[in-house]
């Protein structure tokens, strides 16, 4: 009998149909790449803690993504989910490549995306993420982000032009890598590094479409990022 995994994911409070979390998308790409069927449990920020702890008794600090396994336990964290899938389905398309060295390099790329691309994207998506919420989730989102950033709401997004400039500077190496492979970061086939990058793009495009257009698709004078984004569509449509 086919196993049905449940993926707990984050959606907007207004329509409950926009899945925007980059960490969740990493898990979704990994599941799709491994051709593993799954159901999603869409949750808003405020629903997430009680829904995950009620369903997965082993989890006491709930975050998304959480993948509920056959035995009912929840597996938290996108990388842990990818490692689990790689181990369980070794004969399906690989996420990390053949050697520990390839896996290490992909982890290194993940750190680059997280530390160099995410800060400016995070500032640019802030207002969009806020406006996508219903009033209770908007209140939670605003106060939790004010607390974590130490800044009042109106200062979190920062200066648009400075954000776009910072992003372009840090996208340069990614653009160069894609120009050289002519395809995915990993070459002919995507893997973890691509799914990390693509997840950041899905997050950016769904919460700040104009800035994504200007800051990624039109940032360089060629079709490298538009072509890459076209390839990503096969997973997200
Ligand atoms: N390290 C985790 C990320 C976990 C995480 O921070 N998830 C966020 C969504 S991207 C979350 O659950 N946020 C809940 C909240 O902000 O209340 C992973 O990559 O899977």
Automatic annotation (TrEMBL):
An annotated GO cellular component: cytoplasm
Residue span(s) of domain GST C-terminal: 99-237
Protein name per the record: GST N-terminal domain-containing protein
Residue ranges of every copy of the GST N-terminal domain listed in the record: 11-93
Domain of life: Eukaryota
Pfam family, one: GST_C_7
């Amino acid at each position: 009998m086919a196993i049905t995994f449940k993926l707990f994911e984050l959606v907007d409070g207004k329509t409950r149909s926009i899945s925007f979390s980059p960490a969740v998308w990493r898990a979704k790409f990994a599941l799709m790449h491994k051709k593993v069927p799954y159901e999603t449990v869409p949750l808003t920020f405020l629903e997430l803690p009680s829904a995950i702890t009620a369903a997965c008794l082993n989890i006491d600090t709930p975050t998304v993504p959480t993948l509920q396994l056959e035995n009912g336990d929840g597996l938290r964290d996108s990388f842990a989910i990818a490692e689990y899938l790689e181990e369980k389905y070794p004969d399906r398309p690989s996420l990390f490549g053949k050697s520990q060295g390839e896996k290490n390099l992909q982890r290194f790329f993940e750190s680059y995306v997280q530390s160099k691309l995410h800060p400016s994207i995070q500032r640019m998506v802030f207002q969009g993420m806020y406006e996508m919420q219903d009033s209770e989730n908007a209140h939670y989102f605003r106060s939790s982000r004010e607390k974590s950033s130490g800044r009042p709401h109106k200062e979190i997004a920062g200066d648009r032009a400075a954000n776009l400039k910072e992003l372009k500077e840090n996208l340069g190496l990614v653009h160069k890598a894609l120009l050289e492979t002519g395809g995915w970061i990993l070459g002919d086939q995507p893997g973890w590094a691509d799914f990390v990058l693509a997840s950041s793009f899905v997050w950016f495009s769904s919460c700040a479409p104009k800035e994504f257009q200007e800051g990624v698709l039109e940032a360089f004078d060629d079709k490298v990022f538009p072509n890459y984004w076209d390839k990503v569509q096969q997973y997200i449509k």
